[in-house]
């Protein structure tokens, strides 16, 4: 049997442009586009923001959008009904794929059903371990464990996350591979003063948002014009807590709360800020930090988790501890050392060249081709039995 050098892939993701909430959606979208440029045939199955199923075509990329309604989605298990996904995917995409590439746990059961029925290998890009995140449900933890067990290949964006998976899921160790997230080079930098700060990310405790807010109070004594733009979504309860803290310490007027913004809009906002602050306690990768570097914006960041694989003192001002004093000291160091900051921007621009989406897509394509060959052999064996 002659194998194609252009593998066909079904991508399953709950987030896909233009409906992107966080880093997962950004990665799923940018990677799919880059794979198409590598001559990989990509069809996307994702969540719809409307109440109907519909197919969209954009520059050759076919996307089926499926609503999270009772007809297609099981709300008790927070997952799409596997039989519904099977029927819809084969209806819109009659040709079976060589590989199923899954990003989101909502499609775990559907991916496993398709693997068992049609002998299609699964590649799972694991963006984080849900068991390490605040507020994760037992169902999500079990769903991810199932996907890690059934996937033929697991891709993670950092060696740190690979080690964490190996500690918790020993059987997944031999099939886990590191392919970092990519980034697109954006603006050519900023001329905005460094007291205009920017934070981007989910508003949860692990992102270090509380000590960052408290650091603004410490720094406002030196620079009353200090401003912090906060972009990201929070639960209503936690949002009220953060604003109460800001009001209590007298910096509510220094902070601009923008909530969730589309990824494209966030990209355009980098150049209107003097520095990006990433005070995280835990990061599987740290896409915001990489985006700041790619946009030529000074980065003030911890080296937590996967961040330490590309954030270092040569290309960023390091936050040594996730507390208000350490964060304020790091921000102040950027203010006092413009020459050092300029050198770091040069090093950051050189470093991000290694993280092009083209390079990452080429690694994925090599993996898909290997699984395409092994998948055909598995199917043949199954038919013989």
Automatic annotation (TrEMBL):
Domain of life: Bacteria
All copies of domain Glycosyltransferase subfamily 4-like N-terminal, residue ranges: 21-184
Protein name: Glycosyltransferase family 4 protein
Domain named Glycosyl transferase family: residues: 194-348
Listed CDD domains: GT4_PimA-like (cd03801)
Pfam families: Glyco_transf_4, Glycos_transf_1
